[in-house]
Design a protein that fits this description.
About 45% of the residues lie in helices and about 25% in strands. By secondary structure, it is α/β, with parallel strands linked by helices. The strands form 3 sheets. A 6-stranded mixed beta sheet has the order 5-4-3-6-7-10, with helices on both faces. The radius of gyration is 22 Å and the shape is globular.
Length: about 290
C-alpha cells in the first residue's frame, strides 16, 4: 500500500470511528471502566452511612474512634489492544475481512480512550509478537496505531495467543484494560489468560465471518487453511457435513466463552455482518451496571 492510499484509508477510518466514539461511546466507555482502578487517598472519622467494610481497624483501635479508608478513582486508565493478525484474520465473504472489522473496532476503542484522557497501546501478534506500541495519549498516537493495523505485513501466519499474553504480562507494569481481538482459532492459552486476568481487566472480542459458522450447498470445494496452507476437499452437498461444521463452530465459541469466564474475564462475540456499534454499546451498558452494583 503506497503512502497516499494509506493516508486516505487512515483518514476514512478516523472520520467514521471518531464520530462514533464522540457520540456513542465516551460516556458509556467511562461508565463501564470507572472505578476498576482505585488508589488509597486518606483515613477519616466514620460518618453515618459509610460502608462498614471500609473501616480501618488499626486506626480505629489506636484512636478509640471509628475511622474509614477513603479511596479515589484512578483518573487515568491504560487501554491495551491485543490484536490477532494471523492468516485466518484476513478472511471475509461479506465485503470486509475480519481484520478490517477488528481495525475499526480498535479505532473506536482507541478514540474512546483518548476522549476520556486515557492512554492507549497496541500489541499485534500472529505466531509471534509482530509489534508492540506502549500506551500513550493523543490523536497522533492513535493515528499511528491505525496506520500500523492497516499497513502491517505479518511475518507469521499462525496464532500464538499464549505467547502474546506472556509478552504483554512482561511489558505492562500498570494494571490496564486489555481487549483481546481475535477469531480465537488457537489453543493452549487458558493458563496464561488466567494469570494475565488476575492483574489486568481483560475482555475477549471474538470476530467471525458467517461462512465460518454455516456452509452453503455449492458442491465440491477445494479449500486452504489460512494459517497452515494445507489444502483439502470438502463436499458441501452433504447435509450431515454441513450440520457437523456448524456444531463444531458453535462448540468452539462456547468453549472459548467458558474459558474466559473461568479466567475471570469478559467475552463478546461479534459476526462481521452485525453492527459492532450496537454490540459494544450493549457491552458497555452491562459493564456500567456491574461497576455501579458490583
Amino acid at each position: 500500500m503506497d503512502t497516499a492510499e494509506l493516508l486516505k484509508k487512515v483518514r476514512k477510518i478516523e472520520i467514521k470511528t471518531r464520530g462514533l466514539s464522540r457520540h456513542f461511546f465516551t460516556g458509556g466507555y467511562h461508565s463501564a471502566f470507572k472505578g476498576r482502578g482505585m488508589s488509597f487517598s486518606e483515613v477519616r472519622v466514620y460518618q453515618p452511612g459509610d460502608d462498614v467494610r471500609m473501616i480501618d481497624w488499626n486506626v480505629t483501635a489506636r484512636t478509640g474512634e471509628p475511622h474509614v479508608k477513603i479511596f479515589e478513582e484512578e483518573r487515568e486508565l491504560s487501554v491495551v489492544l491485543l490484536v490477532d493478525v494471523s492468516g485466518s484474520s484476513f478472511f471475509g465473504t461479506t465485503g470486509q475481512f475480519k481484520q478490517e472489522v477488528l481495525t475499526e473496532i480498535c479505532a473506536v476503542l482507541a478514540f474512546s480512550a483518548i476522549a476520556n484522557n486515557d492512554k492507549v497501546g497496541v500489541l499485534l501478534f500472529s505466531d509471534r509478537v509482530e509489534l508492540f506500541i506502549p500506551p500513550q495519549k493523543g490523536r497522533q498516537h492513535t493515528l499511528r496505531i491505525i496506520r500500523e493495523l492497516l499497513n502491517l505485513a505479518p511475518a507469521g501466519r499462525g496464532t500464538d495467543l499464549a505467547g502474546a499474553l506472556q509478552y504483554a504480562r512482561n511489558v505492562l507494569r500498570k494494571r490496564s484494560v486489555c481487549f483481546i481481538l481475535s477469531d480465537f482459532i488457537t489453543g493452549q492459552y487458558e493458563a496464561p489468560l488466567r494469570i494475565f486476568s488476575r492483574r489486568h481487566d481483560c475482555i475477549g472480542l471474538h470476530c467471525w465471518d458467517p461462512r465460518e459458522r454455516q456452509l452453503p450447498d455449492v458442491g465440491l470445494l477445494r479449500v486452504a487453511d489460512a494459517e497452515s496452507g494445507v489444502m483439502t476437499w470438502i463436499d458441501t452437498t452433504d447435509p450431515d457435513f454441513r450440520r457437523q461444521y456448524t456444531r463444531l463452530f458453535e462448540k468452539r465459541v462456547a468453549t472459548t466463552e467458558e474459558l474466559f469466564r473461568r479466567a475471570g474475564a469478559d467475552f463478546l462475540s461479534i459476526p462481521t455482518t452485525d453492527s459492532y456499534v450496537q454490540a459494544l454499546l450493549r457491552f458497555f451498558e452491562q459493564r456500567a451496571k456491574i461497576v455501579v452494583h458490583g
